[in-house]
Amino acid sequence: MRATFVVLLSALLAGGLAQSDAEAFEPANFNVSAALLDIGVHVSAIPELAGLENRSSLSACEIACASLQTIDGLGEVLTQGLPAYVNFTGSYWSAFQGEVSPYCVFKPNTALEISVQILISRLTQCSFAVKGGGHGAFAGSSSIEGGITVSLENLDQISVSSDKTIASVGPGNRWINVYQALEKEGVAVVGGRVSTVGVPGLTLGGGISFFSNKYGWACDNVDSYEVVTASGTIINASAKSRPDLYWALRGGGGNFGVVTKFNFNAFAQGSMWGGARILSNDSFPAALDAIYSFATKGSSQDPDAAQIISFGYDASFGPLASVQLDYTKPVANASVFDEFNKITAVKSSTGIHTLSELTVMLNEGIADGVRDTYWDVTFKVDRDLFTFLVDTFYNLLPNIADAVGLLPTISIQAITVPQLTQMQRNGGNALGLDPTSGPLFIMNMGTNWDNPSDDARILKFHADVMNTVKVEAKKKGLDNDFIYMNYASQFQDPIGSYGTVNQEKLSAISKKYDPQQVFSKLNPGYFKLQGVPNATWPS
Ligand SMILES: Cc1cc2nc3c(=O)[nH]c(=O)nc-3n(C[C@H](O)[C@H](O)[C@H](O)COP(=O)(O)OP(=O)(O)OC[C@H]3O[C@@H](n4cnc5c(N)ncnc54)[C@H](O)[C@@H]3O)c2cc1C
Ligand SMILES: *[C@@H]1O[C@H](CO)[C@@H](O)[C@H](O)[C@H]1NC(C)=O
Ligand SMILES: *[C@@H]1O[C@H](CO)[C@@H](O)[C@H](O)[C@H]1NC(C)=O
Ligand SMILES: *[C@@H]1O[C@H](CO)[C@@H](O)[C@H](O)[C@H]1NC(C)=O
Ligand SMILES: *[C@@H]1O[C@H](CO)[C@@H](O)[C@H](O)[C@H]1NC(C)=O
Ligand SMILES: *[C@@H]1O[C@H](CO)[C@@H](O)[C@H](O)[C@H]1NC(C)=O
Ligand SMILES: *[C@@H]1O[C@H](CO)[C@@H](O)[C@H](O)[C@H]1NC(C)=O
Ligand SMILES: *[C@@H]1O[C@H](CO)[C@@H](O)[C@H](O)[C@H]1NC(C)=O
To answer: Any stretches that span the bilayer, and where are they (predicted)?
Structure first.
């Protein structure tokens, strides 16, 4: 028997509006079966659900996945063993996520189908994960062992308003798709710098962009969000409508619902200039001087520019740095890059390119499906601390240098005063950063390698570099609590770093829109309001 999935969208929207009262977004006696019935899913007509009370022989997720498969007209369900399932788990950016085996993968086609999945997960108590671009580095970020991994890939709409001020982007998109579509309209949005990264994870955690010195982070440039809440209700959040949720989504991650549409502020954009320059270690001091000038002065003088410096190691070449230089206008070697232009590069790819081309260039050499870890901390900009962190990285590197397939990096990315100022737009974001504390910089580390037997010592290497630099920064009064979610490891607590006031505000908003805490209890992966994913620091 196939149950019929009747889309009663108007009824659902009416329900959403009726429930907009602050205190009772979801009543205490919320009836999940009744909510499913409201959107056309008759629980009693689905054998697996009707037999819920007899579940001794069936697991929660067996029932949930079978139900999703039974309901006519719902998106695709991939079960273990199918070639498409193997293909799916094999296509994560990080091997740690690919090693996770969900009971099934669900690919919804609409927001309403996500409502159905969330309510079925509640009814059966089957946990789920939400996958956008899948670039979370650690296991469970956007995958879940034995649960339902909800892949948003089919929610891939991209459209531009007739006045070209808003770009509506579905969460199934990668940045390359967004930029290529928007280039046809002569516009762009503030988003990721690497082609294959997903729109939703990057935007919900913050989102550092080539345009950030001009407009702030990606989360500061979302005009409104469409969200499926824990009760399956589809709502909008903007500065005017539900400003509390709107604020929370600007940095609060996946704690509040599944975002099914990002309405980004769009702006006119043509060709740009940018690329990477590779430097050898005799240029490191000059390069650190240059990035220091940019972080403290250049970024304020010319907000069209963006710069990142990353240090790494190549077995045949030795220590090297890669400087990413970008300019939002098609101008070569703008004066803000003068200091870098004086440094002889081993190799350079800077030139005039479109935004989408720049993101493809930045993706070169980034492999899918290998073991990855990302970490970050934040400090006040200080020239001596730059030297200290680079030295610490190279001093500790011998501990892991013989690991097969090793590609270790440590980067300096300034959170400039113009960025901090732009973050205050539209009522501010949830990150807890204020312009008077700037300029700051994120010290982020990312490493990939081949063999599981090297996992422990490589994680410990990151922990050791972080700890060592943290101690030095504290000693010099340069420490800052902020941990950027999008680069954080499973041993860190980004939301806890936003400050007590913001953390409590985020918890209150979560309890208002999700009183049963579905987005932590049934959707446990990645960074939650409840704290660090893994409290056992590598040792
Ligand atoms: C190669 C590379 C380049 C990067 N470049 C940048 C950069 O330029 N700037 C920057 O700021 N960061 C960058 N990052 C970090 C990046 O922002 C994070 O990895 C981010 O989580 C990726 O988003 P995703 O959708 O691909 O990830 P996913 O792993 O799919 O999602 C991350 C988290 O968001 C949740 N989530 C996803 N979609 C939704 C949704 N629709 N509603 C609610 N929750 C959702 C997931 O459940 C998961 O917990 C980069 C990362 C990599 C690996
Ligand atoms: C919940 O709703 C279903 C479907 O309308 C109904 O059969 C059931 O009795 C309700 N349960 C409670 C506890 O009210
Ligand atoms: C549950 O199992 C019992 C005993 O096997 C059976 O009598 C009953 O009909 C079942 N209930 C449902 C809803 O399947
Ligand atoms: C596997 O993934 C590739 C790339 O996404 C796709 O072209 C192919 O059809 C997939 N194969 C199966 C069996 O799903
Ligand atoms: C959300 O906003 C859009 C655009 O303003 C509107 O078309 C849509 O009906 C709204 N949805 C809800 C659930 O309020
Ligand atoms: C640069 O690295 C090489 C090792 O590849 C080392 O011998 C040399 O001393 C380093 N130079 C500086 C200036 O650190
Ligand atoms: C920009 O500067 C680099 C480094 O000095 C130089 O190699 C390149 O030729 C310059 N490009 C242009 C277009 O002037
Ligand atoms: C947490 O991290 C430690 C290493 O620090 C590891 O041994 C342990 O297995 C991890 N726990 C989980 C649940 O992943």
So the answer is: none
